[in-house]
Amino acid sequence: MARKKEFDRDEVLEKAMETFWCQGYEATSVQDLVEQMGINRGSLYDTFGDKRALFLAAIAHYNNTTFTEAIAQLEAPGAAKQAIVDYFQNFIECATNDKQQRGCLITNSAVELAPHDQYTASCITAHLQRLENAFYHALVNANEKGEITPKQDLRAIARFLTCILQGLHVMCKVKPSVLQDITDVVISVLD
């Protein structure tokens, strides 16, 4: 008879996500995961499979929790220019308050794994496409409300915002003092 799991899957997945986020995939050992998750190796393998499968589950968990919460304001039906401004300001606040300077799990994983892991690259591409679509949604609304008069195609601006945000995630790891300056320039594109 199989033993009943004595842990909450989402709680231990959150701990695994945090571990990968702080250390990266390659630098995280199974022992690190076992210690941080508070479960034994057998439970890790029985529940999630191997380290890679756990990592992919952690990426999915990040997308379903942290990321979904972060872009909710951009995906809201009435999102427009202020939602974009607020998104970047919220990003700066979170980044400057993050003493571990973790950056973004997706950005970190893109740099570390995407060049040589096609499946991870496709997961990251889907994540970035959702972000681009959220920016595009807010831009279309802003344009329809007359809040912006774009000089470029709105899809191109959404891609620009997505790209800049990924760069900001890198900058917050090495030079967080410049985030507001960069964001001010980014927001000026919408004027």
Explain what the structure shows.
It is a single chain. The chain is mostly helical. It is 73% helix and 0% strand. It is elongated and about 60 Å long. The N and C termini lie far apart (65 Å).
SSE map:
Blueprint: H1 9-23, H2 30-37, H3 41-48, H4 51-75, H5 81-97, H6 105-112, H7 118-144, H8 154-174, H9 179-188
List the main descriptive attributes of the protein structure presented here.
about 190 residues, mainly alpha, 9 helices
Please mark out the parts with pLDDT under 50 across 5 or more consecutive residues, or reply none: none
* Quaternary organisation of the protein chains: single chain
Distance between the termini: 65 Å
Question: How large is the radius of gyration?
Answer: 19 Å
Number of strands: 0
Number of helices: 9
Give a quick rundown of the structure.
By secondary structure, the protein is an all-alpha fold.
